[in-house]
Amino acid sequence: MVLHKAQNSIAEDLHRFRVVNCGRRFGKSLLASEEMLGVAMAKKDRRIAYYAPTRDDARDIMWSILVKRCEPITTYKNDSRLELKVRTVDKGESMIVLYGWESVQERGKGRGLSNDFIVLDEVSSMRNFWTGWNEVLSPTLIDRKGSALFISTPKGFNHFYDLFNMENKDQNYKSFHFTSYDNPYIPPEEIDREKLSKPEDTFAQEYMADFRKTTGLVYKDFDRTRHVYNEDDKFNIIDRLVSIDWGYTNPSAIYTICKDTDANYWITDEYYKTGKTTSEIIEYAKSLRGNKYYADPAEPDRIEDMRRVGLNIRDVSKDIEAGISAIQELLKTNRLHIHYSCMNLINEFETYRYPDKKPDMNEKETPIKEHDHALDSIRYALYMQQPADSGTMRATQFRPNHIGGARRGYQLPK
Question: Fewer beta carbons under 10 A from the terminal one: N or C of the chain?
Fold first, then answer.
């Protein structure tokens, strides 16, 4: 198969991690199938893994393309497991396996394996991406010095936006941006027709691969330039809060929130992990040395366990709408600041949204229950805060000291 010019520029690049941001009908699936086949054929005993948002997506998007493309050299095929073995140029075999991202997100599927090449398709739709990538999939490339191809059309300023900008931080990454017009096999007039029938933001995102704010955002006032801070910022703290959203299959989300003398709130570090037991979560929360703890009240047994170890547990309201309003007000008045290492929280601010309105119906504005673990956590603490009592506590200057994204090395004054 002959790749078109834009596809070929990606295939020829030698960076270990390639991130492709492209419009619809660019030809990303065909590119991915060629890359997987090329890696598989080059040397025996290689293992290639492909991930789509769901297993059904993997079957619908890639399986038929791969089966047809590999047919002349296929030595084994399992349609139920979505597995193929192909002959290699050195007279051996290599394996290609297709998965759904939910297997990584929910069960840590793939942990402990060794891969030579991973393709992640429609990355922008993969929930809890950084946890799955950093904790499960990235380590599978270490033994074999493997590589990865990330491909997607954008969906707001979420984790895919951060991934696309990784080339500015890590020389192993290279990003590519192509629009639907860059596929020479799609008549331009067809794309022009789509432009006339779509809202401007929708067309820009879906066909021009332009990062745009998602419609219906809950926290539309959130702006990285105003609300995200770095290591150089200093502030005087009078209170240190710890917020907890319990999880196991879903991530447990824990944040340290420092309140300063001007009633600003500084979120200094992030704990966002799956598969953690109650004792592990409490032990970590205790290490943060907060003087007030706010946890999801839906887990009373866990809260009682926190009390037993001496943590100062405070009441929490589950009023979602009122809690959202409180955070919206902090954003509007520039009183909420988030450390840049809190990547999952930042991503949730940029993707948490309301459902699409049905015509002629006045619906209750309850957000869609996804991309919300971190936001639920900080809401428990922030909604329960009262106006600052400026005379009750002495302030101390604080400069965050982050090691591996975790807060260390500061204390409240005694």
Answer: C
Predicted structure pTM score: 0.69
Q: Is the domain defined by 224-408 classed in CATH 3.30.420.280?
A: yes
Chain Cα centroid distance, residue 36: 24
Cα separation values, 81 from 63, 98, 103, Å: 11, 8, 13
Per-residue model confidence as pLDDT tens digits over 322-359: 999 999 999 999 999 999 999 999 989 988 888 876 65
Contacts of 200 (CB under 8 A, 6+ apart): none
Please report, as a single letter, which amino acid is at residue 142. I
Which residues contact residue 189 at a Cβ distance below 8 angstroms, ignoring those fewer than 6 apart?
A: none
Instruction: For the domain covering 5-206, report its CATH number.
Output: 3.40.50.300
Positions of the chain with pLDDT lower than 50, given as ranges: 388-414
Q: For residues 15 and 237, what is the distance between their CA atoms, to the nearest angstrom?
A: 44
Phi first, then psi, for residue 200 (nearest 5°) are -55, -50
Q: Residues 392-414: pLDDT tens digits?
A: 333 444 444 443 333 333 333 33
Q: Where are the domains of the chain?
A: 5-206, 224-408
> DSSP characters for 305-365?
HHHHTT--B------HHHHHHHHHHHHHTT-EEEETT-HHHHHHHTT-BPPPPPTT-----
The answer to whether 373 and 250 are in contact (CB under 8 A) is yes
For residue 290, the SS3 value is: coil
CB contact at 8 A, 255 and 378: yes
SS3 category, 8: helix
Residue of 150, 162, 207, 114 lying closest to 18 (CA atoms): 150
Q: Return phi, psi of residue 239, to 5°.
A: -155, 145
Fold equal for 5-206 and 224-408: no
Distance between CA atoms of residues 156 and 124, nearest Å: 8
pLDDT tens digit sequence for 22-50 = 999 999 999 999 999 999 999 999 999 99
| Tokens standing for residue 113 | 């394996």
Nearest Cα to 116, choosing from 174, 39, 52?
39
